[in-house]
Write a structure and sequence with these properties.
This protein is α+β, with helices and mostly antiparallel strands. The protein has three domains: 2-35 and 545-653, Sandwich (Immunoglobulin-like); 74-210, Galactose-binding domain-like (Jelly Rolls, Sandwich), CATH 2.60.120; 216-541, TIM Barrel. The protein contains ten helices and 34 strands. The strands form six sheets. Strands 3, 4, 5, 6, 7, 8, 9, 10, 11 and 12 form a ten-stranded antiparallel β-sheet that branches. Strands 2-13-16-17-18-19-20-21 form an eight-stranded parallel β-sheet. α4 packs across α5 (351-358) and α9 (476-491) packs parallel to α10 (529-539). Its EC number is 3.2.1.55. It is an enzyme of class 3 (hydrolase). One of its GO terms (molecular function) is alpha-L-arabinofuranosidase activity. It catalyses: Hydrolysis of terminal non-reducing alpha-L-arabinofuranoside residues in alpha-L-arabinosides.
């Protein structure tokens, strides 16, 4: 309660006394600049087990034995112990992308003699009645070896099983796949493989997928996680990050060409969030790239979003190693950017377009923009950006380039980059804001005085960070402050062309960074209050700005109110967004210029909680959730009731 009081003292002192009469003057007959179709999107980074163990539906951890500890995630059990029965072999000279495999030697083994058990990513989420697809690569000269495949619950009870009998293949690797149905639901399941027979067998790419992936694609994504993204109808999806683009050093940077083609040929690397925060270390966090650039493009297409890839610009993380590629050695990095555009857009007869077509997508993905670097700064960044800009624009003049403004939204570093990037006439400047709720309330007018030039703003990573121990949680105060800030972005849609919250996903048992937009466990997924704020802005973004003022000024915190308005041309509706940040109901009169109706009907969608520290959770996923009601107002200046601590969207047919 003390934090509540302190927060509102701050609001009242900084925003002025409460006015008695409040009227929103809405210039319905004076539509302004267009709102970009890409205004609100999503930012994906493989942090918090976002890809492996998250949206990528693979249930087996370390399926190809390429982790630093080759058997991490696996438990070998032998009833009659025999040294050397299970070996990890390395064929690096023959296969640099996937060098390790497992060799098992059986000596007239029965089923009980030897088994491998995989723990999954903090367990395996198993659903009763669902089909599971098990597959693996193998080579053996010994026919008749049997694999007993079993799903186990946390008490070692079998809850689904199948048997695979192998034929001889010599030294040629073959793939086997088999499916079976689970008989029980379990959040912390495991996979056990037992062996029966005589002889040697080589194993690799041991895999288990649920059948209910997004669009039923084998080896695909968790449908429930993708559905929450699709429900937002995002204008874009930014990928693959984030800090993983840079890498701790350049050897760990993200290289898109190593993430396409057959999954068994994609080269695993360590995830930088494996060790970035010692207090949240995740030694089993790697990137298998089962979710690679092809899948990112496909996902964007599926949910109707523009793809926005971010590429390394020859600079590693400046907080960690600050490693640079000399300018005279930057050509391969620039070529990667040009090749990516060809991969996405080129005809099936081109080199990289053919690879896309061979992966099952002969039509182009229509890539229009790209980020060069992530949270990079300084003259060294500008020197590299210029070379990328020159090469890309020479070949693709209309292609949009997003440039980094560093890590903070103010200060000398930001000012230097902001000025320099505008002189370079880059298409978008990527601004990041991880700040307390007070910052977001106070910056609702941030872009009111920004220059209206060809260089636009991309609010590429934003999140309100409430100071609540032991970790920063996605509470209603944070979401309400973001809603207030987003009214300022919307009011300045001629300056701000894109915005996305970050990070996107977090696993409740495997996170490194909080807060996050969407949280999951192995069976469930829920949106935070912040998710519903971003979703409501996205679903109600409109097509043109409508001026909205109170006392002849934009509504940027007067009386703790924040507001914006847009015209939704296809729906022929006026859309007003209002935040009431006070703990009491406020009444606002609407003066709708150009709208002569004496009686107004429409609808109101309200996101509200009396408790600023309320959160959603696995058990209470809709503690803070939008509620829609009908709107009926009358009079020349009808009164609008705004509930305490509320974000409101009013849609009025026009």
């Amino acid at each position: 309660m003390k934090q509540n009081v302190t927060f509102f003292i701050f609001l009242l002192l900084s925003l002025g006394a409460i006015a008695q009469n409040k009227t929103f003057v809405v210039g319905v007959n004076r539509p302004g600049a267009a709102v970009s179709p890409t205004m609100y999107g999503v930012f994906f980074e493989d942090i918090n087990m976002g890809a492996d163990g998250g949206i990528y539906a693979e249930l087996v951890k370390n399926r190809s034995f390429e982790f630093f500890k080759p058997l991490m995630g696996w438990k070998v059990e032998q009833h009659n112990f025999r040294e050397g029965a299970v070996l990890v072999l390395n064929r690096k000279e023959k296969n640099t992308a996937n060098p390790r495999f497992l060799q098992i030697t059986l000596d007239h083994n029965s089923k009980e003699d030897l088994s491998l058990t995989n723990e999954g990513f903090r367990g395996m989420g198993i659903k009763k009645g669902l089909r599971y697809d098990f597959s693996f690569l193998y080579a053996t000269a010994a026919p008749g070896i049997k694999l007993y495949v079993e799903l186990l619950d946390r008490d070692n009870k079998i809850m689904g099983a199948t048997t695979v009998t192998l034929s001889a293949s010599g030294t040629v690797w073959k793939k086997r796949a088999v499916s079976f149905v689970a008989t029980q639901t379990e959040e912390k399941g495991r996979l056990r493989i037992s062996f029966e027979g005589d002889g040697k067998i080589d194993l690799d790419m041991i895999s288990l997928f649920p059948s209910d992936t997004w669009k039923g694609r084998k080896g695909g994504m968790r449908a429930d996680m993708v559905q929450l993204l699709a429900d937002m109808k995002p204008g874009f999806i930014r990928f693959p990050g984030g800090c993983i683009v840079e890498g701790f050093d350049l050897s760990q940077r993200y290289q898109w060409k190593k993430t396409i083609g057959p999954v068994e040929e994609r080269q695993l690397i360590i995830n930088r969030w494996n060790f970035e925060f010692p207090q949240r270390a995740a030694p089993d966090y790697f990137q298998t790239f089962g979710l690679g650039f092809f899948e990112y493009f496909q996902l964007a297409e599926d949910i109707g979003a523009e793809p926005l890839p971010i590429l390394n610009c020859g600079m590693a993380c400046q907080f960690n190693s600050a490693e640079l590629v000399p300018l005279d050695q930057l050509d391969p990095y620039i070529q990667d950017a040009l090749d990516l555009i060809e991969f996405a857009n080129g005809p099936a007869t081109s080199k990289w377009g053919k690879i896309r077509a061979d992966m099952g997508h002969p039509q182009p993905f229509h890539l229009k923009m790209m980020g060069v670097g992530n949270e990079n700064w300084g003259p060294q960044y500008l020197a590299r950006l210029r070379l990328f800009q020159k090469a890309i624009k020479a070949r693709y003049p209309e292609f949009k380039i997003i440039a980094s403004s560093g890590t903070d939204p103010d200060g000398k570093r930001f000012e230097y980059l902001n000025d320099s990037l505008r002189k370079l006439k880059v298409d978008f400047i990527d601004e990041h804001y991880y700040r307390p709720p007070q910052w977001f309330f106070s910056n609702a007018a941030r872009y009111d005085q920004y220059p209206r030039t060809q260089t636009k703003v991309f609010a590429g990573e934003y999140a309100s960070h409430p100071k609540v121990a032991p970790e920063k949680k996605n509470n209603w105060l944070a979401a309400l402050s973001e809603a207030a800030f987003l009214t300022g972005l919307e009011r300045n849609a001629d300056v701000v062309g894109m915005a996305s919250y970050a990070p996107l996903f977090a696993h409740v048992d495997g996170w490194q960074w909080a807060p996050d937009l969407i949280w999951v466990d192995n069976l469930n997924v829920f949106g935070t209050p912040d998710y519903y704020v971003q979703k409501l802005f996205s679903l109600n973004k409109g097509t043109k700005i409508i001026p909205l003022t109170m006392d002849h000024k934009p509504v940027t915190g007067q009386d703790s109110l924040y507001a914006s308005a847009v015209w939704d041309e296809p729906a022929k509706e006026l859309v007003i967004k209002v935040v009431n940040a006070l703990p009491k109901t406020q009444t606002v009169a609407l003066s709708l210029e150009g709208l002569k109706k004496q009686r107004i009907t429409g609808k109101v969608t309200r996101l509200q909680s009396d408790d600023l520290y309320r959160t959603n959770s696995i058990k209470t996923p809709r503690a803070v959730y939008p509620v829609e009601t009908q709107l009926e107002l009358s009079g020349k200046q009808p009164a609008l009731q705004l509930a305490p601590y509320s974000f409101n969207i009013i849609r009025i047919p026009y």
